[in-house]
Write a structure and sequence with these properties.
280 residues; alpha/beta; Rossmann fold; 8 helices; binds 1,4-dihydronicotinamide adenine dinucleotide; binds D-galactaro-1,5-lactone
């Protein structure tokens, strides 16, 4: 169910937003988007539980918030037109940590969106929603999910929240199943999963303004040579990545080869499939 229609279609998202909320703004991708989304809205509201540097500049406001705090998230969302939800635990961790930041946190974001009439969310989902699929498989957005840990499960739940809030309240979401978004790929697996910052920026902007997305799931990857994911079901976004991991191939292939049974060579989610258990 990629592009689900909603019984109560939302009004078109305006091309220029008055106030845009970015959660996770102090993180790796938040820092990138803070810079790149400048100008996408009159005011960018930046939020994180971690300290933000630099402090708010022109057309920015900083609102510290723990996503696990429902009342605080409600106040955070008041007055915004759209939400780019990138905050949360971004790696595999014990369930209790994931529960607070990602599961409760994303629920709080959608509840606040409902209460304050926000019509559009861009959700940082992850390839770890489908991480236990093998690298020999080709997946589109309707492929069965195979989360590779508590983290992947939390992103899968986030996608389900997006579907529910679309069907029930007409809040539209683009869930971006981000592959690996770093300055450059770090290993052979990331040659397939890499998403450049330029392509991430383009995808987030499209996700914010494309009308009629319902709940669309899109894989966040650049135009890499060997990919596992098919984005045709997200064609409404018109996303055509500009970058490719190919320019890094020589450097990556100079790394020692992986054993054939190394999870990084077997599963789409790579080493995440082997994280934990925690606290035994
Ligand atoms: P990151 O870990 O650098 O940033 C996440 C931010 O969320 C951090 O600044 C952290 O302080 C904040 N955060 C954590 N718990 C919080 C809480 N309870 N309340 C408020 N803020 C909280 O991660 P990164 O790489 O910037 O990823 C951003 C988003 O994109 C995450 O949701 C991650 O799961 C997702 N993603 C990233 C990928 C990547 O390749 N970088 C791949 C797939 C998904
Ligand atoms: C993710 O979901 C993580 O947030 C990021 O740190 C990377 O590990 C990425 O997936 C990946 O799979 O490479």
């Amino acid at each position: 169910m990629t592009t689900e229609t909603t019984p109560n279609p939302s009004p078109r998202t305006p091309q220029r937003l008055s106030r845009l909320l970015l959660t996770g703004a102090a993180g790796g991708l938040g820092t990138v988007l803070r810079e790149r989304l400048r100008g996408a809205a009159d005011t960018l509201r930046l939020s994180d539980i971690a300290p933000m540097a630099p402090a708010a500049g022109p057309h920015e406001e900083v609102v510290p918030c723990d996503l696990a705090d429902k009342a605080a998230v409600d106040a955070l969302v008041r007055g915004v037109d759209a939400i780019v939800h990138f905050g949360g635990v971004s790696v595999e961790r014990p369930f209790e940590e994931i529960l607070e930041a990602n599961i409760r946190g994303t629920f709080h974001v959608y509840e606040a969106a409902r209460r304050h009439g926000v019509r559009r969310v861009v959700f940082a989902s992850s390839n770890h929603v489908i991480g236990f699929h093998r690298q020999t498989e080709r997946l589109d957005a309707d492929a069965p999910r195979r989360p590779d840990g508590y983290y992947g499960l939390s992103k899968s739940y986030g996608e389900d929240l997006a579907t529910f809030y679309c069907d029930r309240y007409g809040i539209e979401t683009v869930s971006i199943r981000i592959g690996s978004s770093f300055p450059e790929p770090r290993d052979r697996r990331m040659m397939s999963t890499w998403l450049s910052y330029r392509d991430l920026d383009d995808l987030v902007r499209r996700a914010l303004v494309t009308p009629g997305v319902g709940h669309t799931v899109v894989y966040g990857m650049s135009d890499n040579r060997d990919v596992w994911w098919d984005n045709r079901k997200a064609s409404v976004l018109g996303f055509a990545p500009q970058d490719s991991s190919e320019i890094f191939r020589d450097r990556i292939e100079a790394q020692p080869p992986r054993a054939p049974d190394d999870p990084g060579a077997v599963y789409q989610g790579g080493a995440f499939t082997q994280a934990g258990p925690f606290g035994d």
